Amino acid sequence: MGTKFDLSQVPEDLENTSTLDELADVAVRMRDDLGLDHITYHWVDGAGDQYGFTTYSDAWDEQYRERNYHRIDPVILGCFQRFHPVDWKQLDWSGKSVRAFLRDAREHGVGNQGYSIPLRGPIGQFALLTINHTCEDDHWQRFIATYSRDLIVIAHYLNRKALEFARERQPEIQRALSPREIDAMTLLALGHSRAQVAHTLSISEHTLRAYIESARAKLGAQNTTHAIATALSRGLIVV
Amino acid sequence: MLRYLYADELHRFPALAEGMFRDRADQFKTRLGWDVAVDVNGEERDQYDTMNPLYVIWEEQDGSHGGSMRVMPTTGPVMVNEVFGHLNSGLPICSPLIWEVTRFCLSRTASPHTAGAIMLSGGEMMEGFGLSHIAGVFDARMIRIYRLIGSSPIVLGSQGKGRDQISVGLWPYSPDDCDRVAKRAGIPRDLSRLWFKTAFGNVAQHRFALSA
Q1: Are A109 and A226 in a shared domain?
Q2: Percentage of residues in chain B with pLDDT exceeding 90?
Q3: pLDDT digit string (tens) for A182-239?
Q4: CB contact under 8 A, B200 and A156
């Protein structure tokens, strides 16, 4: 962990994967290159479905699920609904049950240092990329200072790719657009301004915005332009 | 002092939150005449307030709202892309290292330097979370205010003329800008970092190594 390892290839490697296993391979290779103990990616969708990978031991994975540790894990509680990266030292590890959880984690090989990056999907999915290690505080601070920005970017690429696989996994959850949403998206795709579209559909721009927003959410798109492109590519609108 | 609060933490400061949403109604609806929705309690909110954004709030000595802004990551739904995308020729601003700032608001009775203090929080967030830029949409009158505060954006695109001109811009992270804004706002950086640390814990040293 002395000199800085060049991570610039990682986003491209992630981009070239086509399964979650391949994605995990890239992440684990990065962990090895950085000389870290563990890496974990954990994704939860609106329906509570979970998805991801971890290098923690199977025993810890099982213990965690069996004891429902996600209910008290300060990392989950401290990152859920947030979007800033979190050093585990910032979290509240006090309280009897939390201290017992921490002891159990340490006994199962979880390191004393962690850095977790919360990720927000376009339709409210929540994911977390965590790196974990065993070392002194000042060592960890230097490591994070050196790599935090790279890790934030990599976490983002990884999450985007995982969401792509998730969509492929569950094609049935693709929701159809309503007639009004189809009208609005079609007119926007034709290059009309929002004002023109609102006028054509005899609705206020405020209402139009609501249709665009609901279409965007259904399509899992980042923004209106992305939504139009997605709707076109899926054949939901024709221009 | 500056408070950094996610929407789901606002309940701990009810008066401050109420003041913020009322002052937003006062600024955007009453004074600027924007097409924003104000509820029966006289509070202005939009769909983005339901997505658990982060608010930066200047709290006056008496505990009241002096000014505030709303912060969201550009990897999720944001106004620069969804509402003002045309200002940047429809090219989305989407990066885990760029956060959007909207609803920059000052109360009528805000103490001097409130605007500068809020701007300073942008620098603290960029420094503390390793961000490269803050993105925002602003009208013509704000350009002069930003210059006075000590931090001017790079303008990506504009629409309209004169007073009605609105623009989208980026503030790149710059330690010099942070120090200048702090100095003009009369807030020592140590104090500003302390407020940040109070909210997020000991992360102020996360700035990536410039030598790397």
Answers
A1: no
A2: 81
A3: 889 999 998 889 999 998 888 888 889 888 988 888 888 888 988 998 888 777 887 7
A4: no
Domain that holds residue A215: 175-233
Q: What is the pTM of this model?
A: 0.79
Torsion of CA B63, B65, B68, B72, to 10 degrees: 70
Same domain, yes or no: A83 and A114: yes
Closest CB from A81, A87, A89 relative to B8: A81
Question: Residue B158: what pLDDT?
Answer: 94
Q: Could you tell me if A226 lies within 8 Å of chain B, comparing CB atoms? A: yes
Cα gap B129→A44, rounded to integer Å: 24
Q: Under an 8 A CB cutoff, do A222 and B77 touch?
A: yes
Task: Flag whether A1 is in a domain.
Answer: no
Other Cβ atoms within 10 Å of A219 Cβ, number = 24
CB A140 within 8 A of CB A111: no
Tell me whether residue A4 is in a domain.
no
* Residue B71: strand pairing partners: B54, B101
Residues of B in contact with A81 (CB under 8 A): 6, 8, 52
Beta-carbon separation of B94 and A223 below 8 A: yes
The CATH number linked to B28 is 3.40.630.30
φ/ψ of residue B170, rounded to 5: -125, 140
Instruction: Report if residue A194 sits inside a domain.
Output: yes
- pLDDT, tens only, B148-167: 999 999 999 999 998 889 99
Which chain A residue's Cα is nearest to B76? A122
Number of structural domains in chain B: 1
